[in-house]
Amino acid sequence: MSINTQRERLLKLFESESFLRARTIADTGIDPKTVQRMVEKGELARIGRGLYTLPSVDPSTHYTLAQAHHLVELGVVCLLSALTFHEIGTQSPRSVWMAVPRTSRVPNVSGNPIKIIKFSGAAYTEGIADYEIDGVTVPVYNIPKTVADCFKYRNKLGIDIAIEALRDVVRYRRSTNDELLKYAEVCRVRNVMIPYLESIV
Predict the structure, then answer these.
(1) What is the C-alpha separation between 88 and 67, in angstroms, rounded?
(2) Are 116 and 78 a contacting pair, CB within 8 Å?
(3) What are 42-59's pLDDT values in tens digits?
(4) Which of the 8 DSSP states describes residue 89?
(5) Higher confidence at residue 56 or residue 34?
(6) How many beta carbons lie within 10 A of that of residue 103, not counting itself?
(7) Distance (Å, rounded) from C-alpha 29 to C-alpha 81?
(8) Cα–Cα distance between 97 and 156 in angstroms, integer?
(9) What are the sequence ranges of the domains in the chain?
């Protein structure tokens, strides 16, 4: 296959995808050297280890979440990144926080600003909502689940972050108390969260 033909095939792939992984490109039979030449010519942009897009793509505020989802297929945006996505609290994480099943193999994301946390059972599967970000469907935990997760991982994040998130969600009515307690039960932090919830309400 000629270089020009490979180039045309690669550009065709981007008609339906905003981002492509190196593995996906290689699976179509396109030579990595073609990809490298296109990057050098400015026809393609390498935006992370093994992740490419077109230079013409105008990324949204949350494009890093779409990037991370392409690199971590089973990943769900969680904790600090979910708080930022939902505009809760004052956090501005440098990495994208992603939850993966506890039994799954952790993908190699070295060179990319991604922090992976392992969730298990219902704590992983419950409360997922899909959002369209830069043409990519990205799973993000919903608001009450994110608050419950912050309490579950309070030793890692700091209890202040969990309390701030709970206070914002209650104050601005971003969730009902019943929803908050439902996910607190899922995350096994109901008894931890209730005193804080009662003091805010």
Answers:
(1) 22
(2) no
(3) 899 887 777 888 887 766
(4) S
(5) 34
(6) 8
(7) 35
(8) 12
(9) 3-53, 63-200
